[in-house]
């Protein structure tokens, strides 16, 4: 069974976003590094048409990245949220203070 077009599109977009976004367990790749990796893996791990479509307009991707930049973890305001017991007693939930 073939992988659906939707899944192939998501795989390419998710890889690009995951590698160019801050994560606590890895460093951030530049857009150029992520694009080079996608091009290297096009036809192996990723659909080459989906890779080409994503990389066709990097300036649009950069505009979106600027609009929705990650907030560095050091700038988050501690104490604004706390964990609390669920009223139903089924584990913990997040409660806004």
Automatic annotation (TrEMBL):
Residues 1-70 form the HD-GYP domain. Gene3D superfamilies: Hypothetical protein af1432 (1.10.3210.10). InterPro entries: Cyclic_di-GMP/3'3'-cGAMP_PDE (IPR052020), HD_GYP_dom (IPR037522). PANTHER family: CYCLIC DI-GMP PHOSPHODIESTERASE TM_0186, CYCLIC DI-GMP PHOSPHODIESTERASE TM_0186-RELATED. This is HD-GYP domain-containing protein.
């Amino acid at each position: 069974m073939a992988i659906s077009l939707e899944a192939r599109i998501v795989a390419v977009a998710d890889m690009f976003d995951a590698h160019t976004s801050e994560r606590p367990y890895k460093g951030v790749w530049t857009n150029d590094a992520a694009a080079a990796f996608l091009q290297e893996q096009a036809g192996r791990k990723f659909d080459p048409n989906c890779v080409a479509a994503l990389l066709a307009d990097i300036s649009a991707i950069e505009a979106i990245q600027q609009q929705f930049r990650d907030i560095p973890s050091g700038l988050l305001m501690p104490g604004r949220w706390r964990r609390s017991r669920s009223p139903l007693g089924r584990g913990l939930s997040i409660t806004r203070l």
